[in-house]
Amino acid sequence: MHIQIILAVALGGALGAVGRYLAVSQISHWMGGSFPYGTLAVNVVGSFVMAALVEVFASVWSPSQMMRAFLTVGCLGAFTTFSTFSMETVLLVERGETGQAVIYALASVILSVLGFFAGLQLFRTILG
After folding, report:
1. 80 closest CA partner among 115, 121, 118, 38
2. Is residue 67 within a helix (H) or strand (E), and if so which, with residue range?
3. At residue 35, what are phi and psi to the nearest 5 degrees?
4. For 9-38, what is the mean pLDDT?
5. Which of the ends of the chain has fewer CB neighbours closer than 10 A, N or C?
6. What is its subcellular localisation (predicted)?
7. What pTM value is reported for the model?
8. Average pLDDT over residues 31-54
């Protein structure tokens, strides 16, 4: 792997992470903290922007691999991994693999939430 791509992902990741923190903080301040509105918002916005980039890359702009990595893996990947999940799900549907898309979507959500619960329980037990 080229060091320039790694650096592009790192820079994009830093920008995306800061953007996520600022967006979630501001939206939570506006909407209150009883529901994760900020996280929901960045996931939806990130998915929208990922879709826009995919279409722009396919139709009107062919950026370098480094720029693609900076924007998608770095910026959007750190802003929200949900954008990648959304893209992968839609790509499965567009390839006619709807059943696989449904399995992937359900498994991703259910197993990720279960993984979170398992991690909580394990470390609550360990740290007691």
Report:
1. 38
2. helix 65-68
3. -140, 145
4. 94
5. C
6. Cell membrane
7. 0.80
8. 90
In this prediction, residue 125 carries a pLDDT of 92
Which of 113, 104, 10, 109 has its CA nearest to residue 66?
10
Cβ–Cβ under 8 Å, residues 70 and 57: no
Which residue is listed with tokens 């990947």?
77
Pull the structure tokens for residue 18.
């800061």
Which residues are documented as binding site? 77, 80
Q: 37 and 31 in contact (C-beta within 8 Å)?
A: yes
Tell me which residue of 26, 8, 27 sits closest to 77, measured CA to CA.
8
The conformation of residue 43, written as its DSSP 8-state character, comes to H
Checking if the pLDDT of 17 tops 90, the result is yes
Annotated binding-site residues for Na(+) read 77, 80
Contact 57, 63 (CB under 8 A): yes
Number of residues in the chain:
128
Location of structure tokens 């929200």: 80
Give which of 53, 47, 45, 48 is closest to 22, Cα–Cα.
45
